[in-house]
Amino acid sequence: MSELHVDGPLRPGDRAPNIVLDAITRQGKIALDDFRGHSPILVGLFRGLHCPFCRRHIAAQAQLDIALREKGVECLTVVNTPIERARLYFRYHPLPNLLAASDPERISHRAFGLPNLEFTESETEWPRKVGMDVVTSMQVDMPGELSEPMNRIAAADLLNQKDGYEITEADERMIATGNGQLFGQFLLDREGIVRWSFTEVPEGGRRMFGAPTSQELMSAASQVAG
After folding, report:
1. CB-CB neighbours of 222 under 10 Å
2. Got the DSSP string for 83-107?
3. What confidence score (pLDDT) does residue 2 get?
């Protein structure tokens, strides 16, 4: 398996690597090669479940699962959360038909070329490192969830409180090594070729904690399925 994709995240036209991970929502392993030759697949490579933004992105992807399957497109959610912690979370927060895998070492993220940001005090060299002065200046606006736009750190703390999400020792281990992991979603065709993607990497950090709209995802799926 390749390590970090040298030119950044995999792009349309690139062949996705095979990854083999522990399944969360069923027993055994999940491999991307299982889907090659059978169906397109939307692969969501998220941070750990400790990230409230990613929990919402995961739920949004899961809500499209039935519509995507009607087009013949499968979905796989990958989280940087140890297997037992992840299984416990989804036991109490079930998402129907969710196919999910645990990747606490972030093997899949590196293979797909997603950087793990280093946080610094004031030095920014996107997407390798970012200064906390830049992070705290970035405002996130989530009407219905936040009363007003606020910086990402304050927003994450507030959303965790709102969700009643308690950070465990397992979460703390993931935060210590992968809090700067950027996330991405990659739509692969039947042969495992990337046909569409969304990542936090472009635009110098302005995409951080953002996500594609359901319309974008469904439009991309329609083209791959057709």
Report:
1. 12
2. HHHHHHHHHHS--TT--EEE-TT-H
3. 39
Closest CA to 150 of 160, 158, 161, 139: 139
**Cis amide bond preceding 149, omega within 30:** no
Q: What number does CATH give the domain 20-114+168-225? A: 3.40.30.10
What's the rounded Cα separation, in Å, for the pair 120 and 214?
34
Angstrom distance (rounded) from CA 12 to CA 196: 6
Percent of the chain with pLDDT over 70: 96
Q: Which of 187, 210, 58 is nearest to 140 (CA)?
A: 210
Domain boundaries, the chain: 20-114+168-225
What's the confidence (pLDDT) of residue 204?
A: 84
Residue 71, judged by CB atoms within 10 A of its CB (0-12, 13-18, 19+), counts as: middle
Please list, residue by residue across 203-220, b when 16 or more beta carbons sit within 10 angstroms of its beta carbon and e when fewer do. eebebbbebbeeeebbeb
Sign for the CA dihedral angle at 27, 32, 38, 41 comes to positive
Report residue 226's pLDDT band, with 50, 70 and 90 as the boundaries: low
Q: Which residues pair with 129 in a beta bridge?
A: 118, 125
The residue-averaged pLDDT of 68-80 equals 95
**What confidence tens digit (pLDDT) does each residue in 53-66 have?**
999 999 999 999 99
Query: In this predicted model, which residue has the larger pLDDT, 225 or 114?
Result: 114
